[in-house]
Write a structure and sequence with these properties.
This protein has 171 residues and is of the alpha/beta class. Helix content is 36%, strand content 23%. It has a four-stranded mixed sheet. Strands 5-6 form a two-stranded antiparallel sheet. The protein has a two-stranded parallel sheet with strand order 7-8. The longest helix is centred in the last third of the chain and has 35 residues. It is globular, with a radius of gyration of 19 Å.
């Protein structure tokens, strides 16, 4: 399903699961060369501070580095500003105009700052017992495929009509 998305849709993964599990799932979803198919791949990592206390942090699998961030209810918050403000890689091509976070945990939308809340789409939680009937990701994939067509036909047409009407009122 994810391998059939059109070329204009670039996929990144940001999971609250730990690296080994995340990489195992990525191999299933994207195949053995999963890293070459993703624009970003963030998971969760743990480290011990000087006092020996464990802390969770976002970990970038593609660039092998840790991301600073916030933790809420023992989960790393997927704050899109971390990506948008990243000077090393992601901030160069990811921004509020081209990036969407799709997640089943409402806390990620709640914990994102005001400027990025609209970039988070919540979907129902995936449950293993429903794996044969759960069509949420498939529906979302079809929707994403149609977004480009929708924007070209509806949004641009509506914007052009609105602009023409505004110009008529001014004259």
């Amino acid at each position: 399903m994810l391998s059939n998305l059109p070329a204009h849709i670039k996929v990144g993964v940001w999971t609250t699961s730990f690296r080994n599990y995340a990489e195992g799932i990525a191999k299933i979803l994207f195949g053995p060369n999963y890293k070459s198919k993703l624009v970003c791949f963030l998971s969760t990592d743990e480290y011990k501070d000087d006092k020996g206390e464990k802390h969770r942090i976002a970990y970038d699998i593609l660039t092998d580095r840790q991301f600073p961030g916030r933790v809420y209810e023992k989960k790393v918050v997927k704050d899109l500003n971390l990506l948008f403000n990243d000077k090393i890689k992601y901030g160069k091509f990811m921004n509020v105009h081209n990036t969407v976070l799709i997640d089943d945990l409402a806390m990620h939308k709640q914990q994102n700052p005001r400027n990025t809340k609209r970039n988070v789409i919540n979907i129902p939680e995936w449950k293993p017992e429903n794996h044969e009937t759960d069509r949420h990701l498939a529906t979302l994939a079809r929707w994403l495929c149609g977004v480009r067509t929708f924007i070209k036909t509806y949004c641009l047409t509506k914007f052009t009509k609105h602009r023409k009407q505004s110009n008529k009122r001014k004259n």
